[in-house]
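Look over this record as teaching material.
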Amino acid sequence: MMPDLGKYALEVNSSYVLSLMALGVIAGLYVKRNRAVRRALAELEASQDA
């Protein structure tokens, strides 16, 4: 299914790989931040209930 890219195959494929890696890093940072915020919110709610 991959079209013949000729002499640009390396550049095109490496740009796809780098883009996917960047998306992976962004998604990982999002998940990490989400967990930290949820933990902080739970601690805040627990301190207010006490």
